[in-house]
Each structure stands twice: as C-alpha cells, then as structure tokens.
Amino acid sequence: MRTGPNRTCLGCRRARPKGWLVRLVRLGSGIVVVDPSAAAAGRGAYVCPEAACVEHALSRGRLAHAFKKPCAPSPDLAAEVQAAGDRGAGAPAGEASSGCDMFETGAMAVRA
Predict the structure, then answer these.
(1) How much is the average pLDDT of 79-98?
(2) Which of the residues 40, 50, 105, 112 has the least number of beta carbons within 10 Å of its own beta carbon?
C-alpha cells in the first residue's frame, strides 16, 4: 500500500507526509512566503507548523540552502506558517495536530 510523498522539514529534519507540512516558496524578489495552495510554480521548501521548527529553519540559513539562492523571510513568516497549520496543513487526515510525536506513534501502530 502506497502512503504518498514525504518531504523533510527544514527545522527538525524529520521526514513527514507532504500534506502534514507547510510549503514555503521564494518570490522573484527573494522574499520567502507561505504557499497556501501548495501549488505555486518553482522550488518549494517545507516546515512543520510549529514555532520551534520555523525558528530553526530561519536561524541556521537553511532557507537559502533549500532555495539555492539568497533569500529573506517575510517579516511575519512564523505567524503565517502557524496560521497555515491552524487552517489544516500540518495535520494528518483524521487526526488532530497536538504534538510532533503523535503522528509517529500512529504510523508505528499501522506498521505493527
């Protein structure tokens, strides 16, 4: 049974299902913003909808590495990512998003 595509969070470096993460895109001006439709053209990068993951991605220069070009986060990027997570990105289908380990526990239960 196929589970779908996985992507790696820039902050915590955990591989998770694509729909669980929030997609970021770099605009032509070099500003990084949330891609709410997850369908914008070009290279995308993914983060968990958690403050710690966003902060790690921003503080360690991982955005520039992921986009392979210099870039700067939008001034309210962390808030946009958390809002996107609240709207539904970042939660496995049928589960609430109340912690990092909840999804992994569910995935292990399915494999057993």
Answers:
(1) 65
(2) 112
